[in-house]
Amino acid sequence: MSKDNNFTKVCIKEAFIKLISENEYKKISITNITDKAGINRTSFYKFYETKDALLEDIKNRLFETTHYFVEKFDNVKNRKEYINELVNTIYKYKTYIVALRNAKLLNNNELYNTKVTNLLYKKDNSLESYKRISDIGAITGIIIKWMENDFNLEPSIIIEIISKNVYND
Question: ∠79-138-70 over CA atoms, to 5°?
Answer without folding.
Answer: 55
